[in-house]
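Record 1 of the preview.
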Amino acid sequence: MGTIYAVANQKGGVGKTTTAVNAAACVAEAGYETLLVDVDPQCNATVGLGLAKDLEPNVYDLLAGEATLEEAARDSDIPDLAIVPSTPELAGATVELPQLEGSQTRLRDALAPARERYAFTFLDCPPSLGPLTVGALVAADRVLVPVQTEYYALEGLAGLLDTVRTIQRGANPRLSLAGMVLTMHDGRTRLAQDVEREVREHFPELVFDTVIPRNVRIGEAPSFGLPVIHHDPHCAGAEAYFALAKEVAARG
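->
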């Protein structure tokens, strides 16, 4: 049975999509059948793998029950990595979803076949704790939380952890935290060092050893429609994501 990871943090700009795309690509590179589901109306994961924003069927059709996972998932240019693309129309789902019967479990039910087909599934969540993120957390086994090593790093984490606990008590008792990954880290600055120390002190068991550095190659890779591990496999960013993928897999 495959494992489903939600990559979530309601704070924007912390490296969620970059982490989802590159973790998925690293796992696929290791030879595991992997699925990336773009649950964000901004479609960054879709574009980051070189796909257009207007593809059909997409994750909106999946949630609406108008397409199956087999129909919506398409192969990327990366061996063993498939993607369910997003669409800007998904923004309307934040209003529409709560009105539909079984709204919280629609993504979980739609992704049920993924457990048989894919060893790993990554859900790239939007930067909010709205219906789309809640649906992803209900569908997931584990939550991977990117945390930027900036001043506001801990702001909002309490809200996310409260939401996770609420879902654990209700719709998804099996949900657990895979861990937190420090992103956009500039080890030369005192601020980044202080934030890293603070996060590790607050969550000693949860923070991954691997730290994702600030890296030009990571930033430019999406413009080529590639994960950084394919854009420049030997850069510091690519090596960090390979190390993170190993840690994620080791934690199960």
